[in-house]
Amino acid sequence: MALAPVLLQMSPDDNVAIVGNAGGLPLGAVLPDGTTLIDAVPQAHKVTLSAIAQGEPVRRYGVVIGYATQDLAAGRWVHDRLLSMPAAPGLTDLPKATRTAATGAAMQVPDTVARATFMGYRNPDGSVGTRNLLGITTTVQCVAGVLANAMTRITQELLPKYPNVDGAVALDHAYGCGVAIDAPDAIIPIRTVRNISLNPNFGGELMVVSLGCEKLQPERLLPLGSIPVAAVSDGACEVPGLDVVRLQDNQHLGFQAMIQAIVDAADRHLQRLNTRRREPVPISELVVGVQCGGSDALSGVTANPLVGRVTDWLVGAGATVMFSENTEVRDAVDQLTARAATVEVADAIVRELAWYDAYLQRGQVDRSANTTPGNKAGGLSNITEKAMGSIVKSGHRAIDHVLSPGEKLKPTQKGLVFAATPASDFICGTLQLAAGMNLHLFTTGRGTPYGLAECPVLKIATRTDLANRWHDLMDVNAGCIADGECTLDEMALTLFTLMVDVASGRRKSWAEHWGLHNQRVLFNPAPIT
Ligand code: CA
Fold this sequence. Notes:
Elements: E1 7-8, E2 16-19, E3 46-48, E4 57-60, E5 63-68, E6 77-78, E7 83-84, H1 111-114, E8 117-122, E9 128-129, E10 133-138, H2 144-158, E11 167-171, H3 187-197, E12 208-210, H4 218-221, E13 244-246, H5 255-273, E14 279-282, E15 287-292, H6 303-316, E16 320-323, H7 333-339, H8 343-362, H9 373-377, H10 383-390, E17 401-403, E18 415-419, H11 425-435, E19 439-444, E20 457-461, H12 464-469, E21 476-477, H13 479-483, H14 488-503, H15 510-514
Parallel strand pairs: 10-11, 10-12, 12-13, 15-16, 15-19, 16-18, 17-18, 19-20, 20-21
Antiparallel strand pairs: 1-2, 2-3, 3-6, 4-5, 5-7, 8-9, 8-14
The site of calcium ion has 7 residues, from strand 15 and helix 11.
């Protein structure tokens, strides 16, 4: 017996819908309105609900996602070659802070969320960590090999002595020398490295490994005034206020001496970190970064709306949620500026997206360079369609703050934040760490084993098929929403409960369990020399 077709239409005036059935629908399948499919349509791909003439708009999410490149009869599979991409909306004459506050049952924060606490590590600067990690900052890539060698000893010899410490992370990166360090855009990678070392999960314990001759000197990376008092040096190196091991210093006679100096410095910081204990803190201390990677057409139907619901709850409960990915919000800029809490916030959104347009233009591309072969195979025809599904992660509330790439949230900045970043998973995650993220939600339809060493990452599958195949990589299956096996609210509570357990250290994400860590990848729009 043929299964009943499952069609997911996002808005009443859409002229396409998404096929929800696992395995798709065959040629000849009859839709609920009597239309017979004239193509086989894969799962998560679009099918025409009515005839669309060449040049006419194709609508999904109630917006034009493209124009038909030929006459399309009802019941056709609409893949990317049948759609031309609309122009990006302009950045002038946008509505600014015009939308009235979102209301309705969906915006009510459940009591269990509003009153929730998690077990976190309070930091001297007022932030709260979800993990108790030693982060070892580096000024330059030259030291990465030596530090990696020292990390083996730190992990094997020191960490077993300090059971209250969750781990140690070498914050290595490809920056620091061979770069135009005085270029205006160099501020982005420099403040990214600085602010990652100040991430709440490192407890304010600053320790730096430097080569000595590099352009990014320790005092330039972490100038006095940018450093919390608790991090002030007790090391042997004389950089003011900083605990620095500088490999070119005369005192290091050979490789083993360098390793010993790093291990000794790490030991001092680990002793202090080991005295820290978790304590109950209000849910408002969560700083959640949301992003997607390896998206498909179900991303905007299941996983991203799920994250959007949790975002609405968390922000309503006083917590902070950051959304990012410039090219995936660009087509919805008018929605963002309308949702800005103030005209100043709307102007900041426009400033960031205009800067990014110019950045892409310098490279002779535009936002359409975002979509991947996997996105298209997953049913996303172009960046306009991808953006409409991506922005859903930000929920419905007013946007309170905007961060430029690599900037850090101030302790007073709570609520919904647009942290402007590229959409690249690793670069976005790196910049959200710099912004102060202490928990990461990541949605995927195609599947990615993404993880970060600095912060727990919870991965949410858009499809049951992916969740089943990657049963020990995906933390949550939002596919049950499309299957009709669960409701959005039920899954939102499940996800929220898991977030509290993981933030409290009672559970690990699958990425943590397996030790899956992607590299920090810095966004450096400035020249290399
Ligand atoms: Ca991404």
